[in-house]
Design a protein that fits this description.
Blueprint: H1 4-15, E1 19-23, H2 42-45, H3 47-52, H4 55-60, H5 62-73, H6 85-95, E2 99-104, H7 110-114, E3 121-123, E4 126-133, E5 139-141, H8 142-150, E6 165-169, H9 178-190, E7 193-197, H10 208-215, E8 219-223, E9 236-238, H11 242-249
Parallel strand pairs: 1-2, 1-7, 2-3, 7-8, 8-9
Antiparallel strand pairs: 4-5, 4-6
The chain binds zinc ion (ZN).
Zinc ion binds near residues 136, 138 and 158.
């Protein structure tokens, strides 16, 4: 039997016209993308990767950049990851005509690869599949820069201004794009349901979208393996596997047998 909260969540989605979704790392772990700070996290096991993710080190340390580009060019980073059922469930929600905006903290583009309309996706932390110049903002596809690395450039620079290139992600020490934040906050205030999936809701300021949605009158649904600080203001909370809970909640699967009832 589905838990009370799973049923409540599904009913809320059924009744909603506009669902604003916020996703975090939890929706991508089933695709083999590790989280960053857990015991098996990328940064826990590889401190150099964490330094490369801090804009201050990255800007001033060419050796760090050379290591980072070499590693990317080897294809070690997410070469063949694929979207999973959680991503597809959100495509299903969109095809039902109910998706307002899909805000994601992930940088893997798996939502778009699953079939989500790129125009509805706001990548608040950017994407590793593109590269950007830290000086002038010039952007290109990551694979184009990696071809330059494989052709012998150890620290490829910007073709427009010779500035430092980096993956187009928001690193530690960088601010979110103001337009991305504005779109996210507007989407939070316009949906009748706000659905947070696979995020601990611990990262400011994007976690504030939950409060914005609540204050605008939206019903709040949270699906995350661990408790979050916003569980108390949610209408339905599921501490479940996303691949089990999300397809049921969005009406893609009627199989709720796997969803337990230990959360109400
Ligand atoms: Zn430039």
């Amino acid at each position: 039997m589905p838990s009370n909260h799973a049923r409540i969540a599904r009913d809320l989605v059924d009744a909603a016209d506009e669902v604003t979704v916020l996703t975090g790392a939890g929706i991508s772990t089933d695709s083999g993308i590790p989280d960053f700070r857990g015991p098996e996290g990328v940064w826990t096991k590889d401190p150099a990767a964490e330094r490369a993710s801090d804009i201050r080190y990255y800007k001033r340390d060419p050796e760090l950049r050379r290591i980072n580009w070499a590693r990317r060019a080897e294809g070690a980073l997410w070469a063949d990851v694929e979207p999973n059922v959680g991503h597809r469930a959100l495509v299903h929600l969109e095809r039902r005509g109910k998706l307002h905006t899909l805000i994601t903290q992930n940088v893997d583009e798996l939502h778009q690869m699953a079939g989500s309309d790129p125009a509805k996706v706001v990548e608040v932390h950017g994407t590793t599949r593109k590269a950007a110049c830290l000086s002038c903002g010039w952007r290109t596809e990551m694979h184009i820069v990696l071809d330059r690395v494989r052709a012998g450039e150890e620290d490829p620079d910007c073709p427009r201004c010779s500035g430092v290139l980096k993956s187009a992600t928001v690193s530690f020490g960088q601010s979110l794009d103001p337009e991305d934040l504005r779109r996210s906050e507007q989407a939070a205030s316009e949906g009748d349901v706000f659905l947070a999936v696979g995020t601990s809701l611990a990262v400011y300021p994007i976690n504030e979208t939950v409060r914005i949605a609540k204050e605008a009158g939206a019903r709040i649904i949270i699906i995350n393996a661990q408790p979050t600080v916003f569980d108390d203001i949610a209408d339905a909370v599921m501490h479940e596997q996303i691949s089990d809970a999300l397809p049921y909640v969005v009406g893609m699967s009627d199989d709720a047998g796997v969803i337990g009832d230990g959360n109400s």
